[in-house]
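Annex B. Sample input.
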Amino acid sequence: MAEVSNDRAVLLIDCPDQKGLVARVSGLLYAQGANILHADQHQDHELGLFFMRVEWALAGSGNPDALESFRSAFTPLASELNMHWQLHRIQQRPRVTIFCSQYLHCIADLLHRASAGELACEIAVIVSNHREAEKLAAFHNIPFEHIPVTPSTRVEAEARQLALLQSLGIELVILARYMQILTEDFVARYPAAIINVHHSFLPAFIGARPYHAAHARGVKLIGATSHYVTSVLDDGPIIEQDVARISHRDQVEDLIARGRDLERIVLSRAVRWHLEHRILCYGNKTVVFD
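Annex B, continued. Sample output.
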């Protein structure tokens, strides 16, 4: 049996739907000597859009020219078919930052998963407006930056944050219960590259106290949502959601405790799928490939 190269590439495509797209993409890959490992596709029939993710082993592991050879061959086809496309090398681990405040359950979970090899990234820095996460960062040998935020210092604090992220070459920002609202300027610097976790089943119960609102409403399910951040609060494209059943016996404290497990799960899934290049955004939706 031939050995599968660890040097892999991922192609993400969205374009107007038409016949023969899969054949033309796979045919070009075959002509480039690619060994396709995974392929998935989706059609939005209402909008007439086609989405595709292809992962393949690069011919000649470690050959820096293999991906560029494919890029050069694919560019004319993509132009002809009006494709938006992304090309990624799996071995290139994105540089990531985690923002948090005083709640540590989500960041602790992410750091554990990263140390266990579940998240293919390099966590370059942890940023917080409080110091609760400092010892956790030190335990995992990750730099920690304490940048306090108040209404009067918000602009200055965000300027410091952005300068820090730029200096470190950050490609993904994870908000692990970071209890601050980012400005439009910050969000614009990282389009579809800021992932937040919200402690409700969006679009229900947006805002700061969703568990209290859910309890007051008497719901029978609570949820958590991971989504990309946009300039509109809690309204970005949803990546993942999960729910837990509750009853009239549960108090707000019970909802918060059960919700923390959901928050960990949906945030870690969203981060992993982003790092594995499994997500395409269109409109205010996402396609998440298997």
